[in-house]
Amino acid sequence: MEQFTRRDYAGEGITGPVPSTPWAWVQQWVDDARRAGRERADVPEPDSLSVATVDPDGRPSVRTVLLRRLDPQGPGFFTNLHSRKGQALRAHPQAAATLTWPAIYRAIRFEGVAQELDREEVRAYFDSRPWGSRVGAWASEQSAPITDRGELEARVAELEQRWPDRGQADDVPLPDFWGGYLLHCDRVELWAGRRSRLHDRVVWTRDSPGPLDEDGAWEHRLLQP
Ligand SMILES: Cc1cc2nc3c(=O)[nH]c(=O)nc-3n(C[C@H](O)[C@H](O)[C@H](O)COP(=O)(O)O)c2cc1C
To answer: Domain for residue 9, yes or no?
Structure first.
């Protein structure tokens, strides 16, 4: 028999009247996780967002990105638009995403339809990135095969010469193939771990994807663990 470490989840659960839209609690939980990320060692990357997509053959895949945008429109992230996830989203914009914070016994699940972020917003975010990451975005044909790491490093060296670091936001142009996605949600669930696997769950749903704070659009229910 394999040896598992069994942990009981000693979370406080979900208390208080459930708000009519998910936004306030989503925002609160992300703030709480980011604070935990600053104050304790066991929440090292509170913005880790697992994003699931489906390819043209109906095959699901999931990977982790960083939550780099969150407002009542929904969660968002930045990536290479030609990557495997980008190709999947072009075929099937339906996507799901989760933020999981085991140390604080909480998780959020989002489901909906991904939309490419507009170029203005992408540019503003790209320009805010460190120079090395901006060069890296050009150097990596994300998700394509590579012979060895040397190939990537040679490309980086060439691009570093082409666009030297002058400390300016426009040192490196924005690649056409680099962008971001916003997940317009029609289902949002908060999960709170409790003792003996008797967790708390609350789910909000709406008929079609839309803002997380739209009054009258969302219905909510509690779910069994
Ligand atoms: C903690 C963490 C954060 C990551 N953040 C991003 C990100 O913000 N954007 C991104 O494109 N890839 C990010 N990655 C890499 C992705 O997990 C993945 O390898 C990459 O996006 C290619 O995925 P795809 O081939 O399914 O498109 C991150 C990985 C980890 C583990």
So the answer is: no
